[in-house]
Amino acid sequence: MAGYVWDFSEGDKDARDLLGGKGAGLAEMTRLGLPVPPGFTITTQACREYMADGDVPAELRVEVTMAMRRLEDAMQRHFGDPADPLLVSVRSGAKFSMPGMMETVLDVGLNDLTVHGLAAFTGDERFAWDSYRRLVQMFGRTVLGIPGEEFADALDKAKAARGVSSDVELGTDDLRDLVGAYKDIVREQTGREFPQSPREQLDLAITAVFNSWNTERARLYRRKERIPDDLGTAVNVCAMVFGNLGPTSGTGVAFTRDPATGRSGVYGDYLANAQGEDVVAGIRNTSGLTELERLDPEAYEDLRRAMRRLETHYRDLCDIEFTVERGKLWMLQTRVGKRTAPAAFRVAVQLVDENLITMDEALDRVTGAQLSQLLFPQFDAGAERDLLARGMAASPGAAVGMAVFDAETAQEWAAEGKEVVLVRRETNPDDLGGMIAAVGVLTARGGKTSHAAVVARGMGRTCVVGAEALDIDLPGRRLHVGPRTVHEGDVIAIDGTTGEIFVGSVPVRPSPVSRYLDDGLDVALAEAADEETAELVVAVDRILTHADAVRRLGVRANADTPEDAARARRLGAQGIGLCRTEHMFLGDRRVLVERVVLATDDDERQAALDALLPVQREDFVGILRAMDGLPTTIRLLDPPLHEFLPDLTELSVRVALAESRGEVDPHDLHLLAAVRRMHEANPMLGLRGVRLGLVVPGLFALQIRAVCEAAAQLLTDGLAPRPEIMVPLVGSVQELRLVRDEALRIMADVSQETGQPLDLPVGCMIELPRAALTADRLATQAQFFSFGTNDLTQTTWGFSRDDVEGAFFPQYNANGVLAVSPFETVDTRGVGRLVQIAVEEGRAVRPDLHLGVCGEHGGDPESIRFFHAVGLDYVSCSPFRVPVARLEAGRSAV
Ligand code: PEP
Ligand code: MG
């Protein structure tokens, strides 16, 4: 097998790493006996070495020479032959498609002599000179780096001189003169002549393609698409065929199925008498493939045959580029075609029904990201819209409502039956009521793991965050974006999938897939607007059912209300992996918690705890009832302390004002002293989680008792509650032991009081590096671990999860330090390594240790693969991501 250079006949479709997508496709088509012009591929390895050494590998020149000789033999023409020249195209082709990002040079081999040979061979002198001037132009721009306007200006001058407005009206002499003018430009701009040696042209074109891997736009594209920078591109050198040799020639693109609907058939565009670039650039309007059928039924039939062959061979939708040269079909490219999310599901199931692929393969052909696109209502793409600004897409969906600027107004207006979008600079836990009342949430600050984003995702509420352009004037009840103003009550629309914010209403289309997940296949089918929608719903059902059958990972939900729990269950959750109890202590109950925390004597504290017990018990009864028979992990309280206490500044001002009036409330003074005492510079690293539970007597005991009593009550009712008690932010086994001992005591007490057997599992979250690194010790006290990867990411990287995304991630993203936020997709090298250590060392001590993850990563497709691979038992995510997690857990297993 060759080294840096592979003949098209030597590779195959599986060699994409070395040959790039295009090279592998050309090789595969060659192997299949399809009509591919002869050629060869220079491997990505050559490009990588070029990038490392700044020069092409020495052997490459020799290998290119030999490959060109083979090409000449195959074509019976010679490179540089003045009478009958071989011309080649030089195209980039990376492993992952990067459309339009890198360079191509066509007609390499033309010079002052061979242009006459081309004219003789084609019998078309104008064509030959036009090809030559295109070469000088393309070569000048991409290889020699001359600004494109130089050539464009010269072309304009030529047209003006002739008094015509389009290129095609220029005659042979004009084009010959233009070649002269272009060559002058090359000389002026580079200080040297346009290279007449075909081999020099070829070598320079090859290095130009290598260089184009690292242009600004190519790097930017890779960052966006998460393509690694070190792959390099292959270079395809291929004998030229011409689609612009008159009416019996042409060029086109084709799909073996409709990429929008998945329907089988022939889809594509054809342009007679044109080169590929004309189709791609959209210079001329194309006609459907029926045009080719009409013009040249034979070539059309050849194309259909090739398409059928490719689809049965690749067993997938393929897209194809082809050229017809004087009635002869040439295949120039093929690859598995991109498609919309609905088409991906339909095509996968169609291929199963056509016995081309298995259900396992069908599962692998769709992604969680595609499924989530299908779950949310979307704005009607064809509708008119008035873009106001853009933010970060934090929670998908399409929301239209009146802008309101505080949570209270949101609740009031919603109670009057109005649809509102809550707009805040940023949100805090006090905004929760408003977020629930609103159809969407929009913030000017904060990133994808800010409070607003996490809470909104949890609720499935459409949310856009970090729209920095919004200048919110709360007292004025309005916001400004540059010269534009939106007043409270004005209608706005936010798109949680794209991050766009519109002024005015935009029509919304409901999601049939979401209907199916909520109400079942029959309801969704009965309501399906058309056959395609019905087909889509059935396809999703079949693939998800298969995912459930093959997956090893369990899927639970993060839910903390009975409604969310019920919804999660409908969506297929097999339990609750995280029931956060913080919100149960907000609103009216906050005063009670304040009293517990600030109590100066035991009686006062006990009174507040006693008042909290029945309400907390009812919270758990509701959730455990909704999750009857399924495991429900209840996490003990974990807020930073300051969330429960009055704001220090506000309280200080209030006391100072009261003092100046001589009417200070002694309670306020007491409160101020306590708040001062407990004030923390860094609450996220302060008195929270298990620390709060150990420092404030009775707090965790109250919660544990409430869980036990709720379970006992439901057992008495004949239900099967399965609560698990989870201790947050543990860093030391001593912390866990103290809480666990107390839990066991309370379990025994409640068991005795109620006569119900209670043996609730007790476990802890792994949210601190120290917890992961001492997992063997923790496992002696924990029956389960749940990885809190939000905090684990925060504490491993030392990034504040609330501030970091707006603050410097964009910069980190731009300079390539972070391709993706580690709060979105788990950082497998660092955070993942800690997870791995905890899994291995925890299980070594306790082989039946049950392991899950409940950070936001539990719903992220890429992270789910990792959690499958390290052997977790389940992932837990917001209810709305449950179907996506089911699908991805299935995909991880096939
Ligand atoms: C976590 O830290 O990953 C977690 C699930 O807890 P929270 O997001 O509530 O801090
Ligand atoms: Mg946490």
Automatic annotation (TrEMBL):
Annotated Mg(2+) binding sites: 767, 791
Cofactor(s) needed: Mg(2+)
Binding site for substrate: 580, 635, 767, 788-791
Active site: 451 (tele-phosphohistidine intermediate), 854 (proton donor)
Domain PEP-utilising enzyme C-terminal: 543-889
Gene3D superfamilies: 1.20.80.30, ATP-grasp fold, A domain, ATP-grasp fold, B domain, Phosphoenolpyruvate-binding domains, Phosphohistidine domain, Pyruvate Phosphate Dikinase, domain 2
Pyruvate phosphate dikinase AMP/ATP-binding domain location: 56-285, 294-342
Transmembrane segments: none
PROSITE patterns hit by this protein: PEP_ENZYMES_PHOS_SITE
Gene Ontology MF term list: ATP binding; kinase activity; metal ion binding; pyruvate, phosphate dikinase activity
Keywords in alphabetical order: ATP-binding, Kinase, Magnesium, Metal-binding, Nucleotide-binding, Pyruvate, Transferase
Catalytic activity reported: pyruvate + phosphate + ATP = phosphoenolpyruvate + AMP + diphosphate + H(+)
Keyword Cell inner membrane: no
Pfam families tied to this protein: PEP-utilizers, PEP-utilizers_C, PPDK_N
Superkingdom assignment: Bacteria
Domain PEP-utilising enzyme mobile: 418-499
Main EC class the enzyme belongs to: transferase
Enzyme Commission number(s): 2.7.9.1
UniProt-listed PANTHER family: PHOSPHOENOLPYRUVATE DIKINASE-RELATED, PYRUVATE, PHOSPHATE DIKINASE 1, CHLOROPLASTIC
Family: Belongs to the PEP-utilizing enzyme family.
Name recorded for this polypeptide: Pyruvate, phosphate dikinase
Species name: Cellulomonas uda
